[in-house]
């Protein structure tokens, strides 16, 4: 079951189509969200299952088809084994590395053991459109309010288009800053919106 959930999360963000009109805020997160000096607006949301709710945010002038930055909240209303979730994410990226020479993955555990950061590079050279390098930082966090347990995977993607080598070098130089930004980001309170 957990493996199926993480396969859903590994699907490329390209497969999601920006919703038309108003997008329902399933997680009751006040927006826009300020992240690393940029405002992000809710652009897509979907209940992926009875226990997984997912929302994506883009800067106001960007589209999902050719974004340069994206925030993703994947919120589970049940307890998830964090080490297993992290391992499955890393294994999925390592599998991709067999066919993508730019793919690299790293894992860092917080000093208190309550959070993990997984960061990685991937590249894509589609038949139509521009080639790109994408750098992702995933933050895995457990919640326990005494009566219920939940789990959040917050991720930030930064993408550069064009020459893959120079884009990879440029993103590699930004890596420390992007990881620090994710670690220091104050996660807003999340509450699944009541269903109508």
TrEMBL record:
It comes from the Bacteria. Keywords: Signal. Residues 1-19 form the signal peptide. This is DUF4136 domain-containing protein. It comes from Chryseobacterium salivictor. The lineage of its organism: Bacteria, Pseudomonadati, Bacteroidota, Flavobacteriia, Flavobacteriales.
